[in-house]
UniProtKB/TrEMBL annotation:
Annotated Pfam families: ALMT
GO cellular component, one term: membrane
Any one GO biological process: monoatomic ion transmembrane transport
Source species, domain of life: Eukaryota
Species of the source: Gossypium barbadense (Sea Island cotton)
Location(s) in or outside the cell: Membrane
InterPro entries registered for this protein in UniProt: ALMT
Protein name per the record: Aluminum-activated malate transporter 12
Stated family: Belongs to the aromatic acid exporter (TC 2.A.85) family.
Keywords in alphabetical order: Ion channel, Ion transport, Membrane, Transmembrane, Transmembrane helix, Transport
Record membrane topology: Multi-pass membrane protein
Length: 541
């Protein structure tokens, strides 16, 4: 029987009646799939290498988790331990999986929350069980149900308290879970108290292994991460400002920046600052749980680091606006920008030096240099001010009358063409005419109206061009915005210096020593990304 094909469809069939196009598509997909499978090992290896190279501590943490799971699995694998604990050993495994985090502070926070929640829930559940056993079976069920409702409602509502939500939210969740498991199961299961004891012991074992791995085996401190990220943000902003000003006076790179702004080093420098709010707050919270892991005998004011980060974000918004001047459609001519190149580059260099000095002071845990706001910065501001005042014609204009005359001429030209016509045509049209003459007159009128409409369309952009080109100082307007943002950066620099000095005062940083600082600056000049991902050096702090 012949295969039926719809009208308008031409499909070649093989011997089995399968369309050739369908078969070719499957072959193509199989070839593509086999190619992806061949490339997958190389892609996987490159991904593993990239992730480990970005932060070597990730590999260390992975080994720590694997070793912890192996140790806690011995509760199952070794017969004497299994006989003593039984199947409740699975709670130790669950505890290691849930509690062991990347940093010591995060592990301490979750481990202590889990332990505290378990102890409180177990104690309250034992008290309720003791009261319920003294009554009858019906009253016991009602009492347990009422207790579960009351405790569940109260604990859940307490999770909305800002302080509890910030510090003990995980502990409240564990409290609810443990309390309901013990209280509800006690109604049907006998000897529930022994089960609760065994689970508590296994949770303690799991938390103990997690704390041992986090605090004693290659510890990773949240406080060090927050400290190094603050240094990296200051260095990133310094590099962004310097690169932004240098590229503004280099026309050859402006188009490339417009096309690849997301890959540009300017963007990379301030992006880390703008995206740091949640990270700073989380690291500061975990750092507050950590013990004193340095040689100093005081606790660091981690919340002050959060305040420094907030000031840096405000500072970073100005850098974003400064970067936007490189990407605007209207640019000041290169000849005009060249008049102010030296003064702007000098001012940006002084701001960069101040930011790098702040970064070095935080890195070395010392006070800022007394000359951080040196006379060179004020001299650079005065140079820029003098350079702008030396070109009043660019910013104030010298031919205002001529510009007004040009605008008045353009407005009169537009008014003349847009002036409504008199009713003379009405008189002529009211006279008696033949059909051919009326048709000819209508065509002439239609042609004249179309010509006027086209002239008005052409006149509108011409008027805007006349209005812009007649203002001589319009060429300098984009540069005026750039210069004002540069001065705004200098003004906001005072806020950054004030917060960093406050951090040094509260944290009792050591006094500034020029000779020691010179040696330190020569020895370590890490890039921004390396400073964030380097191994913690808490022993040398």
């Amino acid at each position: 029987m012949a295969t039926k094909v719809h009208v308008g469809m031409e499909t070649e069939m093989n011997g089995n009646g399968v369309p050739e196009t369908f078969k070719n598509n499957w072959k193509k997909r199989l070839i593509e799939f086999s190619g992806k499978m061949k490339r997958s090992p190389g892609w996987l290896w490159r991904t593993i290498w990239k992730v480990g190279r970005e932060d070597p501590r990730r590999m260390i943490h992975a080994f720590k988790v694997g070793l912890s799971l192996t140790l806690v699995s011995l509760l199952y694998l070794m017969e004497p331990l299994f006989k003593g604990i039984g199947t409740n050993a699975i709670w130790a495994v669950m505890t290691v999986v849930v509690v062991l985090e990347f940093t010591a502070g995060a592990t301490l926070c979750k481990g202590l929350n889990r332990g505290l929640g378990t102890v409180l829930a177990g104690s309250l559940a034992f008290l309720i069980e003791f009261i319920a056993t003294k009554s009858g079976k019906v009253f016991r069920a009602v009492f347990i149900g009422a207790a579960v409702f009351l405790i569940g409602t109260t604990a859940t509502y307490m999770r909305f308290f800002p302080y509890i939500k910030k510090n003990y939210d995980y502990g409240v969740v564990i409290f609810l879970l443990t309390f309901n498991l013990i209280t509800v199961s006690s109604y049907r299961v006998e000897n529930v108290l022994k089960i609760a004891h065994d689970r508590f012991y296994t949770i303690v074992i799991g938390c103990g292994i997690c704390l041992f791995m986090s605090l004693l085996v290659f510890p990773i401190w949240s406080g060090e991460d927050l400290h190094n990220s603050t240094v990296g943000k200051l260095e990133g902003l310094a590099k962004s400002i310097e690169a932004c000003v240098n590229e503004y006076f280099n026309d050859s790179e402006l188009k490339e920046n417009q096309e690849k702004s997301s890959e540009d080093p300017i963007y990379k420098g301030y992006k880390a600052v703008l995206d740091s709010k949640s990270t700073d707050e989380t690291l500061a919270l975990y750092a507050s749980w950590e013990p004193r892991h340095s040689r100093h005998c005081y606790r660091f004011p981690w919340q002050q680091y959060v305040k420094v980060g907030a000031v840096l974000r405000q500072f970073g918004y100005t850098v974003v606006a400064l970067h936007g001047c490189l990407l605007t459609e209207i640019q000041t001519p290169r000849s005009v920008r060249a008049l102010f190149k030296d003064s702007c580059i000098r001012l940006a260099g002084e701001v960069t030096k101040a930011l790098m000095e702040l970064a070095n002071s935080i890195r070395n845990r010392r006070h800022c240099s007394p000359g951080i706001l040196s006379d060179h910065l004020h001299e650079a501001l005065q140079d820029l001010n003098t350079a702008i005042k030396s070109q009043p014609r660019l910013f104030l204009g010298s031919n205002n009358n001529q510009a007004n005359n040009m605008l008045a001429l353009a407005a009169a030209h537009a008014a003349r063409h847009n002036k409504p016509e008199k009713d003379g045509h009405g008189v002529s049209l009211s006279s008696v005419k033949t059909d051919s003459s009326a048709l000819m007159e209508w065509k002439k009128k239609r042609a004249s109206e179309q010509a006027k409409e086209n002239e008005r369309k052409v006149l509108r952009p011409q008027l805007s061009k006349i209005a812009i080109t007649s203002l001589e100082f319009s060429e300098a307007l984009p540069f005026a915005a750039f210069a004002s943002l540069l001065v705004e950066i200098v003004a906001r620099l005072d806020n950054v210096i004030e917060e960093v000095e406050e951090l040094g005062r509260i944290a009792c940083y050591k006094e500034y020593n020029p000779e020691e600082d010179e040696i330190i600056v020569k020895c370590e000049k890490p890039p921004v990304d390396v400073a964030k991902n380097q191994l913690p050096t808490h022993a040398s702090d």
